[in-house]
Amino acid sequence: MHIWWTIVRLAVRALMAYKVRSLLTMLGIIIGIGSVIVMISVGRGANASIQDQIHSLGANMLMIFSGTVKSGGVQSGYGTKPTLTIGDAEAIARDCPAVLRVSHATIQPEQIVAGKKNWGARVYGTTDTYAVVRDWPLRSGEFLNEQQVRSAANVVVLGSAVHENLFEPGEEVVGQTIRIKNAPFRIIGVLQPKGRTPSGQDQDDAVFIPHTTMERKIAGGRLPGLVHFILVSAQTGELVAQAKREAEELLRQRHRIAPGAEDDFTVRTLDEFADMAGKTTDIMTYLLTAVAAISLLVGGIGIMNIMLVSVTERTREIGIRMALGAREGDVLIQFLVEAMVISIAGGIIGTLLGITAAKVIAQLAGWMAIISLDSILMATIFSAMVGIFFGFYPARKAAGLDPIQALRHE
Amino acid sequence: MAKDLPVIRFRGACKSYPMAGETVQALRGVDVDIHAGEFVAIMGPSGSGKSTLMHIAGLLDSLSGGRYELEGEDVSAISRRNRADIRNRKIGFIFQSFNLLSRCSAVENVELPMLYHRPAIADWRERAMQALRSVGMESRAAHLPTQLSGGQQQRVAIARALVNRPALILADEPTGNLDSRTGREIMELLESLNTEGITLILVTHDPEVGQAAHRRIRLRDGMIEADEVN
Ligand SMILES: Nc1ncnc2c1ncn2[C@@H]1O[C@H](COP(=O)(O)OP(=O)(O)OP(=O)(O)O)[C@@H](O)[C@H]1O
Ligand SMILES: [Mg+2]
Prior knowledge:
The complex is a heterodimer. By secondary structure, chain A is an alpha+beta fold. In chain A, 55% of the residues lie in helices and 18% in strands.
C-alpha cells in the first residue's frame, strides 16, 4: 500500500530533519525499554541458574533442620539449638515408606594439615549414604562405606577445594594421610566439584568423615547423638511431598509435640527452596520493572512534548495538506505515525542496548542471560503503545487546526 | 452538467469575523455566478475581501450567512470531512507564496493530493510525472523547492493543483511574488489550462493580468462594486 509506505517515509524524514532532537526525545524510551529487557533477561537468567543450583543439591531431596525456619531466610534455621538426633534419622529411614535413603551430619570447622600445608575447612561427620543422597559423584577413590562408619574408622573424603588447597593439582591423594585435630586420617576419595549453594557457600571446601569418628575423636563429647541436619531422598519425584508429610508426622511424635504447638524442626523440599528463591528474584523484577515503567512514562511525556513543538512548527505544512484535501483523520494518522516511529525506534535501540547490557551483566555475574523473543516483542509493542498514547494529544491538536489559520501561520 | 448551471453560485454570501469588541465584516452580501470554463479575475483594494471569497469558494472556510452552491450542490453547511474531499477532487489551489512542502521534492509535492484521494490512484507515479511534464518541470522532478526559482516553484504548485484533475482552479495572486517576466509566463500557463476547459478564478492587483481575464469582478468593502465582461 503506497499510502502507508509514504506516510512512514515522510515521518522518518521529518524526524531525520532534526536528528539530535529526535534522539534526545527517544532517550526516555531507550532507557525504559532497555531496562525492561535487562530486567527480564537478567532476572530470568538469575532465576534459572538459582533453580539449577537448588536442584543440583540432591535428587528428590528433603532437608530437615533443627528449629523453625522463619519466613524469608533460606538458611536461618540452620545450626540453631540442635534438636534432631541420629535416632530421628534412623527412625525416618525405618518407618517412612516414601523415603528411599537418609543421611545426617554434624559440622565443625577445623584446621586440616597435610605435610607442611594446612587449611581451614568444614568437617562433616556423616553417613555412608551422604554422597548418594546429595547426588555427588567422586572424582577418585570411594566414599565412606557402612563398615567404616560402624567401626569409626579414621578415613576421610576430600572436597575438591580442600584437595586444591592442600595438594598439587592433579596429584593422586587416595591412600595419603592428613591430620585433623592431630588425628591421622587416611584419604579414601576425592569428590567432584559441586560449586556454591544458592546462598553462596562453597560446597567443595569441606571434608567428610564417619559421624561415629566425628563424635568420638573430633567433637570431644559435644552434641552426643545430635545432628545438625538430616537429608532424606524420597523414593521418586512424585513422592517428595508424601515423604515430607511422613517425616514431619514421625518427628512430631518422636519430639512429643502437642497438636497445634510449634515444631522444633523444619522440613524443606528443594521445590520449596526454589519457590522462595524465585520469590526474592520476583520482587527484584517487580521493583526494577517499576523503574522501567517510570522511565517509559517520562519518555512518553518527552515524545508528547516534542510532538507538540513539531505541530506548532509545522502548522503551515498542516494547512497546506488540508488545502490539498487531507482529512482530519489523515493529519491525525500522520502525527501518530511520527510519534510511533520515534517510540518504536527508541524501543529498538533500547532493545539492542538492553540485550548487550544483559549479556555483559550475566557474564560478570556468571549466569546466563535468557533473551526470549516474547520480551523483545513485548518491548516493541509497548513502545508503540507509548507512541500512540502520548502522540495522540498532539496529533489530535494538529488534526483540529483550522485550515485558513494554519495556512496563515508564520 | 447543464450548460446554464454555474460551477459557483453565491447568494447573499456574508462572512464576518468576531473580533474583540467588534465583528469584522469581510463579505457583506455577495451574489455571483461563475460558469464552467470561465476565466475570472477578482480585483479590488487591499482588505476588500478577495482572499476571503477565494477561501470560501475553495471550501477552506465557510460562510457566516447566505448560500454557496458548488456545481449545483449546496455546500454551505457540509461537514469538515466532506469539504476536505471536495477540495481534494474538485479544486486546485495556487498560492502567492507557492506553499510547497520544503522537505519534499517537486514530484513528491505533486503526489500529495493523490495521497489523500479516495479511492487510491493506481498510476500515481506516472500521473505526477505527467503533471510535471505539462508545466515543463519534468527535468526538476527530484529537486527540493529550495533548489528551484520562484517561477519554477509556482509551476510545480500548478502541477500539484492539476494532478487530481479538478474542475476549478483558484489562484490567489499567483504572480504576486514573481518578477513581471516570470509572472507573464505563469499567466500564459494558467491561460492555456483555461483554454483546455478548466474554470480559472484568480485574485490579482495587476491590471495587465486583469486584462487577460474574460471577466473582472471588483470588490470593495466586501461587496461587488463592478462585474465586467471583456
Ligand atoms: N481571520 C480573520 N480574522 C479577522 N479578520 C479577518 C480575518 N481574515 C480576514 N479578515 C478581515 O477581512 C477583511 C478582508 O480580508 P481579505 O484577506 O479577504 O482581503 P484581501 O482583499 O484579500 O486583501 P489583500 O489584497 O491585502 O490580500 C479584512 O478587513 C481583514 O482584516
Ligand atoms: Mg488577499
